[in-house]
Design a protein that fits this description.
Layout (H helix, E strand, L loop, with lengths): L9 H79 L1
């Protein structure tokens, strides 16, 4: 009984092709999952940074409003001093 090489048989080549294909598909799925995970982490970091930026922007607006109020008071005082100088001078 002579048998040909095991790898030369058609049935064995099909089994090998299917096995390699399954391994390739599993590897591709794992790669996509890992890539998606790191992309999600990147988006989460961006969201945290954006939230901090929004908070900073809100604080800046509040500070700017306070400065405008103080500047308006200062302008009133300057006008009062100018009026006093005109009355004296």
């Amino acid at each position: 009984m002579t048998h040909g090489p095991v790898l030369a048989s058609g049935a064995n080549m099909t089994a090998i092709s299917i096995s390699v294909g399954i391994i390739f598909i599993i590897g591709a799925v794992i790669a996509v999952v890992v890539w998606s995970y790191f992309r999600l982490q990147s988006h989460r970091a961006d969201a945290v940074a954006m939230a901090e930026y929004r908070k900073l922007a809100e604080e800046a607006v509040a500070n700017q409003q306070e400065l405008r109020t103080e500047l308006a008071k200062l302008a009133e005082h300057v006008q009062a001093v100018e009026q006093l100088m005109r009355d004296v001078g």
